[in-house]
Design brief:
mainly beta, Lipocalin, 8-stranded antiparallel barrel
């Protein structure tokens, strides 16, 4: 009986998880104008992987990714002015819209991103 309840609870929980998989285009306002970045998210269970690309920082691999309901968290290593830095992201997905906050290492510098899923 308990086993059946746990299986049903797992199915119910997965029904509430946001559908993050796919291509996303996000923008943010930086000190020198609008910044664009694309993400390709892949989800298996609660694990988030994929990659990102921007004209300013190039291609980066998503690490430490997790999806919990409509919340996602992940990190990337980026090359900024010849120095590799860790950037941590946290955000929420609502349908085909996403809002993210990125924080650069321990500098305390953060950027707010908004975006949409690209057509499949």
């Amino acid at each position: 009986m308990i086993r059946v309840f746990l299986v049903l609870a797992a199915f119910a929980w997965s029904a509430f998880a946001a559908d993050v998989s796919g291509n996303w285009k996000v923008t943010a306002e930086g000190p020198n104008g609008t910044i664009e970045r694309t993400f390709l998210f892949k989800v298996e269970g609660d694990k988030l992987t994929g990659e990102s690309n921007s004209s300013m920082l190039g291609k980066s691999t998503i690490t430490d990714g997790k999806v919990d309901g409509d919340t996602l968290t992940f990190s990337m290593a980026v090359n900024f002015q010849g120095e590799e830095q860790k950037v941590s992201y946290k955000g929420k997905v609502s349908g085909d819209e996403i809002k993210l906050t990125s924080e650069f290492g321990s500098s305390g510098f953060s950027i707010e991103w908004t975006g949409k899923r690209e057509p499949r």
